[in-house]
Amino acid sequence: MLTKITLILSAALVAGATLLAQDAKRTEASLIAVLKAESSQKEKADACRELARVGTREAVPALAALLADDKLNHMARYALEPIQDAAVDEALRAALGQLQGRPLAGAIGSIGVRRDAAAVNPLGGLLASPDADVAQAAARALGAIGNAPAAALLREAVGKASDANRLAFCEGLLRCAEALGAAGQGAEATRIYEQLRSLKGAPHQVQTAALRGAILTRGAQGLPLLRESLASADYLMFAGAVRTSFEIPGPEVTAVLAGSLNGLSTDNQVVVIQALGTRGDAAALPALYGAARAGAKPARTAAIRAVGELAQPASATALVDLLADTDRDIAQAAQESLASLRGPIVDEAIMGMLTGDNASLKLVAIDLTSRRRMTTAVPALLKAGKDNDAKVRAAALRRAGELAGTSEIPALTDFLMGAGSGPDLEAAEQALSAVCRRASEPGPIAEKLAGLMAGAAPAQKGALLRLLGTLGGPVALKAVRAAVADSNAEVRASALRALGDWKTADAAPDLLALAKAAANPTDRELCLRSYVDLARNPDLPANQRLSMCREVAALVQSKGEKRLLLSALGSVPSLEAVALIGPYLGDAETKEEASAATATVAEQLLKNKAPAQTAAGLVEPLQKAAQATGNADLAKRIQEALKQAQNRAAKK
Amino acid sequence: MRQHVFASSVRTPAKSPLPPLAAPASVRVNRRHFLKRAALAAGVAAAPSLIPGTALGRDGKAPPSERIVMAGLGIGGRGSGVLGWMLPEPDVQFVAICDAKKAQREKVKQTIDSRYGNQDCKMYPDIREFLAARTDIDGVLIATGDRWHALAATWAMRSGKDVYSEKPSSMTIAEGQKVVETARRYGRVYQTGTQRLSEANFTFANELLRLGYLGKVHTVRAHIAPWDAAEMSHAWLAGEPEPPKEEVDWDQWLGPCPWRPYNAAYVRGGWRGHYDFHTSCIGEWGAHTFAQCQVAIGAADTSAIEYQYVKNDSGDGMVTQFGNGIRMILNRGGWEGSARGWKGSCGVCYEGTEGWVSVADGYSKPEVSNPAWMGDFTRIVRDYIERTRRPMSHVRDLFDCIKSRRQTIATPVMMHRSMSTVHAANICMWLKRDMKFDPVKEEFIGDAEANRLRSRAMRAPYSF
Predict the structure, then answer these.
(1) Can you name the CATH fold of B2-144?
(2) ipTM higher than 0.90?
C-alpha cells in the first residue's frame, strides 16, 4: 500500500534526481501537513524521516511541537538534528525546560550533536538532575560543545558526581579537553587532564586517558611525563604511556622510549621494544641493536624483530653479525628480519655471505636470495652449485631454479648432464623443473631437452623425460614416445611414466596402443590406468571421453581394470555410458561399482533436466541396478533416481 | 585489586532487577598482575619460538589470573561462530552473556558452561547494567544486530573494555567516527570482524600486490552480496503483542533506532533489508571486501573520493575512485569482459599491469594470472607473519593485542574508513547520483542532502 509519504515524494521526485527548489518547497509543505494532520504514527514517522533529508527552518515549528510527544519525540529529533539552521537550536533549547525523562535526554543529546554553545548554561543546570540519564546526557553534551564555559561547569561538577554519573562526567571532561586542545587552548586542556589524573575514584580507563591527554597536550613539554610514566611501577600507567607514544612521531619520543629500556623489567622491555618497531622511527635502531646483542632472550628477540620491522637497509650488517649467534633462536630471528629488508645494501651483504667461505652463512644467504626474490643472485647461485659442500651445491641449484629465467636453461642443463646421479642430479632436475613450470613458451625448451636425449646417460634420460612431461606439447611427446622404445629398461619405464602422467589427451592413442601391445603386465596396467585417467578428465568433451571408454572396454580383463573403467563411465553423463555399464551389472565382481556408476550417470542426467526420452531410457538400467546392489544407501539413491526418471518419462 | 579500581567509579544501575553481583571466584583477577604477566605473554606472541605455550600454564592452559576475561554481547548465529573460535583459546575465559533475548542468553550460557564444565556464566538482560556491574571483564565479543555494533563498542570501550565487533561495525559515517574517537581516547584495543585479513589466501593476495607481482595496480574489485538491494525497506511489519520484557526487551532490541511495533520476525533475524537496521547488500559483504581492498591498496586510513551511480538496484558495477588513482569496482559476481568471477562469497580481485589475483571464501588456493606465483605461496605468507607479527587467526590477533596493547590487524580507523566507503556507496545509490567525497573533512562535496545522511539521530537513552 502506498503511504502518504510515498505519494508526496513520488510526485516531487523524478527518479531520485536532486529536488528543484520549488519542488522541494512543495514537498516540505506536504510533509509538514502530514505532521499537523490526524495522520498515523507511521505516516508522521515517515514524514520526519523525509524531512531529515529535505527539511528547512519552515519545518521546525511542526517538528518542535513533537519533541514532547511520547511516540514521536525521537523522530522529531531525527528530522531536526541535520537541519542546518539556528531555529533548530532555539527550538531544542526552548524544549529543555519543558521536557523530562527520555524526551529530555534525547533533546540534550541532539544539542550535543549540534554543539550549540548557547545551551551551555541550561545544560550545566541539568548536571544536577536526579534523573541519571538526563545528568549523564548533559555531561556528554557539554563535552561535545567543548568550550571553556562547558569545561568549567564539568570541572566543578565532576568531584561531586555520584558513582552512577562519574564516568559520563569524566567523558564530558575528556571531550572538552580534546576540543580545547584542538582550539589552541592547551593550558586549559592540561588543567582538565591533571584534574582527572588526580580524581579520586576515577576508573583506570579515565586515568590512562587523562595521562594520554596530559602528555599529548603539553607537546615537547610532555616528554618528562612520558618518561616518568614509562618508569611507573603501575603497569596500567606504563602501558598507557607506551600506547600514547604511538601518537607522537619524531625522534624525541623515540629517544625517551629508547632511554627507558635499561631501567625496565624484561616484560616491560618487550613492550617498549615492540613500540619502537611499530612507531617506525629509524632513530630507534642504535638502541635496538644494543638490545638485540645483549640482555634477556625475549627482549633480544623482540629487538631483532623490531629491527626488521623498521626495514632499514643499513641494518643488514648488524643482522648479519647476529646470524652467527650461538643461540639458534637468535640467529633464526636475525635471518627472518634480514629477509624482510629491501635495498641494494642488503643484497650486497647477502651476496657477501653467498660468495664467502663460511658454509653455514652460505646456506643462510641462499635461503635469503629466494625469500627476497633476488634474481641478480642467479649467477652467484649457479657458481655455488659447484661448491665443495654438497649441501651448499644442492641448496644453491634449487634456489637458482626458483629465480632463474629461460636464459639460464643452458647453464642448468649443463649441471644436469654433468651431475652423475644422486642429490646433485635431483637438485639440477628440480631447478630445471621449476623453470619449465614457469615457462610461457615451452616449445623451444622442449626442443633443447629433446636434443640432449641422444647423448645422455640413463639417469639423465630419466630426468629429461620427466622434464619433457612437465613441459608437454608435441615436441616433448614425440621425444617421450621415442624413449618408450629405448633399449634401457630404466629409460623405458621413465618414458612410460611420463606418458602416463601426460596432462592432455594427446597421449591417449599412444597409451592405448601400448596397452594393447605391452608384453609386461605392469606396463600394460600403467598404460591402461593412465588412459582411463585421461578418459575421466572433465575438461574433455563427453563424446570424446565416451569414445575413449569404448576403445578401452575391449581391453579390460581383471577386476581392478573393470572397476577403473566403470569409474570413468560413471563420469560421462550420457545414455550410451549407461549402456556400456549394463553388462557389468550382471558380473558378481563388478555389480556394486556398476550400480553406483549407473546411479551417478542417471542423477547427473536428471539434474541437467534430461528430456523425457532420455529419462525413459534410464528406467530399465536403474531397475537392474536396484536389483544388483546389496548396498542399502545406494539402493535408496537408485530408487530416488528411478522415481524421478519414471515421472519425467511419463510427461512426454 | 581490579575490583577495587573499578568499584567506586562506575555507574550503578538505579533499578537493577538483579541482586548485587560479584565476579565469580574463578575469574576475580588482579588487574595489574594480569597485565604485567600479559607483557611477558606479549613477548610470547612476538616470539613463539622462544617460550613454549605451556609456559603460560599447566597443560597449555593459562591459569585464571592470566586469562583474558571475556563476555558476549548479543550472540546469535554469527556470534556463536565467533564464540566457537574464541572459546578454545587457552588464555581466554568467558564469564558472562548479555542479550535482550532470554532464550538466547540461556543458549549461550549453556555453550559456555559446557565448555568449562561449570555453571559460572552469568546472564544479563540489560547492556547498561551489565557494563556497570561487570568491572572485572577485559573484553567483549559484540555480535548483536548491525544497529547496535558501534554503540555497544563505544559504551564498552568507555567502560574500559577491549572490543571485538562483528561487521558491519557502523550504520553511519558518524557512528564510525565515534568508535575511532573512543578507542583513541581510552587507549582500548578494538578489532572489527574482517576475518579475511587473517586468512592465508587473502593475505597472499594482498602480499602479491604489495610485493609488486601484479605490477602497477589500477583496479581492485570488491564483492557485494548477490541478494537484496541497495534500496532498503522503510515499511513496518504488522504489529504483534510485545512479549514480556524479561523474554524479549523490545525497547533495548531496537536500541538507537526509531521505534516500530514489535514483530517476532525481526528478532528471529528478519531485520535485514530494513533501512533502520541494515547497511544493504553493499554493506553485507562490502564490510569485508572493501576493507580487504583498502588495506591492499594502502587506503585503510582514507575513503574513496568518487562514486559513480549505476542504474540497477544493487550497485553492481559501481566504480569508486581512491585518491591514489586506484579504482575499486563493486561486483555481485562476474564482470563484463572477463570469464573471471568468484565461486565463493566475499571475493576480491586485484588487477595490475603484470597480472591479477582473485580470491573468495572456500577457495583451496587463490586464482592467479601466473600459476608460477603459487610456488611462492607458503614463503610469502610465512614472511608476512614474520614481518607483521600477525597470526593467521583473527581471534588470536585480538587476544595477543589485548595483552600487548598493540593495535589489531582490523583497527577502528580501518573499520571506519572502509565502512565510510560502504555508507557513501549506499548514499550514492539512494540519491541516484554521482558523488564526490572529501576524506579529510569526511563530507560530500557540494551535496548537502548527502551530508545529512552521514548520521542519524539516536533514540534516548541509546546514544553516544
Answers:
(1) Rossmann fold (3.40.50)
(2) no
